[in-house]
Amino acid sequence: MDYLWSPWRYRYVAAGVKDERCIFCAAADARDDSQSLIVLRSRKTFVILNRYPYTSGHLMVVPYAHQATLAASELETLAEMMALAQRIEQALETLYHPDGYNLGMNIGRAAGAGIAGHLHLHVLPRWIGDTNFMTTVGETRVQPEELTTTYQRLRAALGT
Q1: Looking at domain 21-157, which of 3.50.50.60, 3.30.2390.10, 3.30.428.10, 1.25.40.10 is its CATH number?
Q2: What is the pLDDT along the chain (160 residues), one digit of tens a residue?
Q3: Residues forming the active site
Q4: Which residues of 60-99 are buried (b: 16+ CB within 10 A; e: fewer)?
Q5: Domain locations in the chain as residue ranges
């Protein structure tokens, strides 16, 4: 049997669930953006790296307001989310040159939302062949870049 070690996940596993607070609200309130992986702060929303990304450069655009649905969100917030998604697409293009992008929201637990109570938009760069043997059969994702490197590169590309 082959093993793929991911020691950086140990902190997550060892910590367990300590706080029932929304992870997005906690990140927005944190004082250290590099620790919470917030790449950019805007007026109504912020951009944060996914701590367990599907691909390198997997970002999320998150409103500060803790709302679960589009209907509950302000139009100005939703417009800012799309404007940031456009800006992210340009930054990802410059840094990673992907073959395409996935943008999506899972609204509600039945739709696959991991954080069902707080709306967020995933922005993922994609490459032809990035769903390979490891992902499909081994149910493992191999990231070519550490999160700290991705964080620094994206902050610079987004002009923060």
Answers
A1: 3.30.428.10
A2: 454 555 655 555 555 555 578 999 999 999 999 999 999 999 999 999 998 888 889 999 999 999 999 999 999 999 999 999 999 999 999 999 999 999 999 999 998 888 899 999 999 999 887 764 444 444 444 456 788 889 999 999 998 7
A3: 120
A4: bbbbbeeeeeeeebeeebbebbeebbebbeebbeebbebe
A5: 21-157
